[in-house]
Structures are given as C-alpha cells and as structure tokens.
Write a structure and sequence with these properties.
The chain has 5 helices and no strands. By secondary structure, it is an all-alpha fold. The protein is globular and about 45 Å long.
C-alpha cells in the first residue's frame, strides 16, 4: 500500500510516465490492492490524455471491486467525452 501512495504522489506531481512504469511493475509482482493499482493507472492515462486506456483501467478496477472509486472516475470520464462536440471545431 505504501508503494501505491508513492505512485499516487508521482501522478499528482506530473511524473506520469514513471508512475505508469511503476504501476505496470506493481501489477506484475504484487497481487494485493490490484483494484487500486488499476484505478491509479487509469488516472495516469487520463492525465496523459489517453482516454481509452484510462477507461479500460477504470473498468478493470471496477471488475475487481465494484465499490472502487474507479466507478465515479469512469462515469466522470464518460461525461467529459460525451460533452466533447467535434462539430464545434468545424466552424
């Protein structure tokens, strides 16, 4: 859990690439708190603007733990993506 706190801090500080690297390693080597790791991985990808990978990782977290904060993050990400109107850029 301490490692996940450190990774969360990396994401908050903007060192997203390092956070993703550490999360990938964590998911391979540690079987505890995987729902939290997938949630953080979703946050990291969202910060990079990679919405598809963010949503995928949020869904993995929700599959592991239906009460995960990833459920709300997934909903908010979908709201943002549904609000985006490409036609506004074609004027």
């Amino acid at each position: 859990m301490e490692q996940l706190k450190t990774i969360k801090e990396l994401i908050n500080q903007g060192d997203v690439a390092e956070a993703i690297r550490q999360l990938d390693e964590y998911l391979i080597t540690d079987s505890t708190d995987q729902d939290e790791a997938f949630y953080l991985l979703g946050n990291a990808y969202r910060k990079q603007g990679n919405w598809q990978l963010a949503l995928n990782n949020y869904q993995y977290a929700i599959d592991l733990n239906p009460d995960s904060p990833a459920r709300e993050a997934y909903r908010m990400a979908m709201d943002i993506l549904n609000f985006f109107n490409k036609d506004m850029y074609n004027q």
